[in-house]
Amino acid sequence: METVILHSEATVDPERRDEAVEILTWMAAESRAEPGVVDYRVTSDLEAPDTFRIIEQYEDVAAVEAHESSDHLDEFQARIEPLLVGEPTLTRYDVTAVTDMDGP
């Protein structure tokens, strides 16, 4: 089985940060409820608090495709886009091996 990781980064307008947090929190909960989603986490950068990262882990490509065609993703994109500053990034990683390691 191939695990798929998606990593996105987006910066929001500082004056609309609270609104962005609400939208991102909603999106994380909706996404974690999808079949095939192992994890879906939203973080903010300690040094740039208006920059958010979304780390998504899926069981396989089919789960990614299901997520990408979901109604809540369409709604999320429509709601978050007006709050963005600059272009968001999205990177996909196809993982063939995972090793647990010690450390913080």
Write the layout of secondary structure elements.
Blueprint: E1 3-11, H1 17-32, E2 37-44, E3 51-58, H2 61-68, H3 71-80, E4 89-95
Antiparallel strand pairs: 1-3, 1-4, 2-3
Helix pairs in contact: 1-3
Description:
The radius of gyration is 14 Å and the shape is globular. Helix 1 runs antiparallel to helix 3 (71-80). A hairpin with a 6-residue loop joins strand 2 (37-44) and strand 3. It starts with a strand and ends in a 9-residue tail after the last strand. It is built from 3 helices and 4 strands; from the N terminus they run E-H-E-E-H-H-E. Strands 2-3-1-4 form a 4-stranded antiparallel beta sheet. The chain has one domain (3-95): Alpha-Beta Plaits (2-Layer Sandwich). It has 104 residues and is an alpha+beta fold. The longest helix has 16 residues, at 17-32. The model has no long low-confidence stretch (mean pLDDT 96).
